[in-house]
Predict the structure.
Amino acid sequence: MTTVLLWRKRYETEGLAGLFEDRPRGGRPRQISENKETAIVEATMRTIPNDATHWSVRSMATNQKVSPATVLRIWKKHKLQPHRVESFKFSNDPDFAPKVRDIVGLYMNPPDERLC
């Protein structure tokens, strides 16, 4: 009932435009400093943990001495996804290069008798 009264009052004083704006909300003040946030972002992008291929939320939180929720919030804010690799992975197959040449050769010069 309180919410209805609040919205009615906003409509009376501000009209329809007052219903479409979101109001500032209360809440706990920010606990983490800009320097700490920057340190977490830099560590995520520039370092690799000793015992893994990429940072997890929990390992970064332990490393930076903050909560996992804080790390997750910062990663979402900066659109960081360290579990997604953006580099090309090379094959360990010793015959990889000849196989690639064979496949590319078929695309570049297909045989006359095609199976269609």
The two ends are 70 Å apart (CA to CA). Residues 31-84 form one domain.
